[in-house]
Amino acid sequence: MRQAGRYLPEYNATRKKAGSFMDLCRSSQYACEVTMQPIDRFGLDAAILFSDILTIPDAMGLELNFVEGHGPKFSKQIKDEKEIINLPDIDPTLELKYVEEAVSTIKKELNGSIPLIGFSGSPWTLACYMISGGSSKDDFLTARSWLYKKPKTLESLLKKLTTIIVDYCSMQHRAGADIIMLFDTWGGLLGENQFKKFSLKYMEKIVKDLHKEYPKLPVILFTKGGGNWVSEIAKTGCNVVGLDWTVDVTSVIKKIGKLCSLQGNLDPSVLLGDKVHIEKEIKSVIDKFTYNNFNTGHIFNLGHGISQFTPPENVECLVEAVKKYSSRAI
Ligand code: 1CP
């Protein structure tokens, strides 16, 4: 959840050296350097590749830029079926070779100490950005209008992205990623039927295709705002369901039992509070996962991205509290 990022002064220094955000992602040395920063500072139990979900649309020719204070913006926007047909069927081992190089550089640096998580955006979440031309102030209304105005066109884009994402995640795994996480950040904007038809179906295909080739590869699915659909998400065959902080963990455990492990659930804004509250909230999250001797596993994590205004010492406090209370839970 952006464990390397703008809340760390050392990240800001490397980003400045790199030039732009995309230059940082494209350099395997810099990407490795920032991936290792939170590991070295906090002693975390897993590393996550430093990159972004928008590398795929960038490689498909949409040209990604990060404008200071405005978030991601593409030079081109997908407007109709013809443009989707004209989008290249990219081969990640060529157009996204820099990600493969970043993964293998990080893997070497980690030297087997902790696992490395690779990732991709979900097809629906990538489509949201591609159709809206970047980040959105209206909950991706243009992309959501396609659900009803141009469902077939939307489906052709989702299908194309699904194939690329399977290849992209396979490439990361072969280069050294031990786990793959799919970020379905905007799945929660969908109604139930639309979620199943336009997001879940494609994530399920990705999980199945990855497991066909790599049966033991753990796959984490995280749908922000997907608390109502945890059972359906768990039934895709994924190994872990990521939870945001709005879900009722006890009812999630009752629904999915031992089908999957769970990850997440801490509200990132807790880290803006004082240390007494941080420790109390962490204990409370961990306690919920020990309900009724539930023992299929909980990966402690935030329920979404860390705020850039988080004091790094509060993350230190988080790590200490997780170690204190989770050792008690084992
Ligand atoms: O200027 C900067 O330095 C940019 C800040 C930043 C960072 C640190 C961005 C731009 N991306 C990242 C890294 C990043 N993004 C990681 C690295 C690994 C980690 O440490 O966790 C990952 C996994 C992502 C994934 C990502 N990017 C998602 C899915 C997760 C989530 O937060 O929901 C999304 C939606 C993006 C798009 C994106 N990239 C960056 C920003 C600020 C955004 C959100 C834009 C928006 O919609 O408003």
User: Low-confidence spans: pLDDT under 50, at least 5 residues?
Assistant: none
Tally of alpha and pi helices: 15
- Going by CATH, the architecture would be Alpha-Beta Barrel
Backbone CA Rg: 19 Å
Overall average pLDDT: 96
Short note summarizing the structure:
The protein has about 325 residues and is α/β, with parallel strands linked by helices. It is about 55% helix and about 10% strand.
Fold and architecture overview:
The chain is of the alpha/beta class. It has a single domain (9-242), classed as TIM Barrel (Alpha-Beta Barrel), CATH 3.20.20.210. It is built from 15 helices and nine strands. The protein has helices at residues 9-18, 21-26, 28-42, 55-62, 81-86, 92-95, 97-110, 123-132, 141-149, 151-175, 192-213, 230-234, 249-256, 275-289, 312-329, and strands at 47-48, 64-67, 71-74, 116-121, 179-184, 219-223, 240-243, 261-264, 298-299. A seven-stranded parallel sheet has the order 1-4-5-6-7-8-9. Strands 2-3 form a two-stranded antiparallel ribbon. Helix 13 (249-256) links the parallel strand 7 (240-243) and strand 8 (261-264). Helix 3 runs parallel beside helix 7 and helix 8 (123-132) crosses helix 10. The protein is globular. The model has no long low-confidence stretch (mean pLDDT 96). Coproporphyrinogen I is lined by residues 1-6, 15, 21, 48, 50, 52-54, 66, 71-72, 119, 135, 183, 185, 304-305.
